[in-house]
Amino acid sequence: MFSNDPQIATLSIGREIVELRARQGQAGVLLERESRSQSRRRGDVPVTQVLLANDANLRSFMRGEPYQDVVQPTLSHLVQSAQTPTVVDAGSPRIGDPLEAIRLLAHAQDESALIGQMMAIVRSHGANTAFFVLTEQARDGEQQSHRILAGSDTEVTQLYVAKKWYATDPFLLHASRSHLPFFSSDVGLFENLSGSWREMGEVSRHFGMGSWIVMPAHHPGARRFGALYAANNHLPSENGEEPLRRNRLIFQLLAAELLNWYARQEKALALKISGLTTLDLQILNAITRGERLESIAESLSISLYALRRQIVRSINAKLRTKTVVDAARSASEQGFLAIASERKVGYVIHSARCGTLLRENYGIPFWSHFNPAGLDDAQVFPDVETAQRTLVMIKFPQDECEFRRVDVYHTATTASIDDCAAAGIPRWDPSTMNGGSPADDSATWGTLGSPPADYH
C-alpha cells in the first residue's frame, strides 16, 4: 500500500471509544475514524469511516461529529502531522470509457486513490454523492463490523454512524441478502415512512440526496459483502431515479470491483505477513497437485536435502503446521495458492543511467543505482501508458528508459528482485545506503527548488 505509517489518537468519550488515524496516501491525507462501544452490548459493532482529509470533507465531517469539542483539536493535529508537503496533486481522475475506469480501480494503491476514482465514476453516471459500505458478518448473519468509504457529504456518514442507522437501514439489510439493486422508491412513498426510516429519508433529502441506488456485491461463501450507495439531488417524482436505473450495470461493476479490491488487499497483506516466498508457494502448489518432494526438487533445481531439511521446515514454521501437506492445505484455505497460481504481466521502468525505478513516492523517484536502501522490490505499472505518465510527473526523460515486462502475482503492485532478474533486469542491493552519484548529478538530491537542468 502507498500510505505511510499512520498518526493515531485514541479517545475515551462516555461509553464510546473513538480512534482517529491519519496517514499520507497516494491522493492525499487519508483519515479514519473508528468508533466502538466500551460496553460491548449486543448490536454494538465497530464502525470505521474512511475519507480524504481535504478542507471541504473535514468541514463537513466535523459538522456531523457528535463529540466535536473533543475530537476537533486532536483531528486537526493528526491531519497536519500526517501531511507530506512534497505530494504531487494528480487532480481528479478523468473518466472516458467507464469500463476502463473500473478496470483501473484494481491498481489503486490505497483507499485515498480509491475514493477519487469511485467518485469520478459515479459523478459521470447520474449521481453526485456516494459511499461504499464493507460489512463483516458472523456465521449467523449478525453484523460484526462496518467500514465506510466516504466519497462526499461526509456529514451524512457521520450521522449514519452516530445514530446507528446501519442497524436498521433497509438498504443495507437488502444488500446483505440479495445481489439485486435497491432503489429509493422500493421502500414505498416517503409520506408513509416512520421511525428511523423516516428520519433517514428526511436527512437524505436535507443533504440533497433525493433518489438512491444501493448496489450489493458478494463473493461466494464469504462472510463479507459490500454495498455501494449512490444518489442525486432529484426526487423519484422528478425522474431522479432514471439515470441511476439506466446506469445500474455500471454501478454493479463498480460495487463488485470495490469489493474485489478489498479482497485482494486482504490476501496480499496476509501473504506478506506469513513470510512465504515465491519458492515456498511454488512448492506448496506442487504439493497440492500431488507431486512428491523428489520431483519438486528436480523441477526447481534444488537439492532434496535442502528442500526437506531447510525449506519445508521453514514453510511449516511460517504457517505453524507440522507437515508440508498440512502447510499446503493451510495455504490453500487462506487463498495464498490462488494468488500464486494467478499471474499477470506488468511493466517495470529501467534506465541504463539510473537503474530500476523502485518507487515514486509523493513525486520523488527512488532508483536502484542511487537510493535503493530498504527497497527490495520495484514498482509495477499495469501498462506502458501509466508508466509514461509517472515519468512525466517525476520529469524524467522517457527516451532514456525501457519498459520491461515482468511476470508477477495478479495482486502484486511491485516486483521482487527475483522477478526483475527473471525479466533480465539487473539485480540491486537493498542494503546499500547510496550507490554513488551519476556524472551529471541527475536523479540525485539537488538544492531544494532547483532541480538539475537536464532532469526536465
Structural key phrases:
456 residues; alpha+beta; Beta-Lactamase; Arc Repressor Mutant, subunit A; 4-stranded antiparallel β-sheet; 15 strands; 38% helix; globular
Secondary-structure topology with pairs:
Blueprint (H helix, E strand, L loop, with lengths): L6 E7 L2 E10 L2 E10 L9 E6 L2 H9 L4 H15 L15 H6 L7 H13 L5 E9 L5 E8 L3 H9 L7 H8 L4 E2 L11 H12 L4 E8 L5 E9 L9 H5 L1 H27 L3 H11 L4 H8 L3 H16 L4 H10 L2 H6 L1 E9 L3 E7 L2 E4 L9 E3 L4 H10 L7 E9 L4 E3 H6 L34
Parallel strand pairs: 4-6
Antiparallel strand pairs: 1-2, 2-3, 3-4, 5-6, 5-9, 7-8, 8-9, 10-11, 10-14, 11-12, 13-15
Q: Which strand-content bin applies to the residues? A: 15-25%
Describe the strand arrangement of the main beta sheet, using strand numbers: 1-2-3-4-6-5-9-8-7
Give the CATH superfamily of the largest domain.
Transcription factor LuxR-like, autoinducer-binding domain
Largest beta-sheet details: 9 strands, mixed
Structural class: alpha+beta
**CATH architect. name of the largest domain:** 2-Layer Sandwich
Shape: globular
DSSP summary, beta strand count? 15
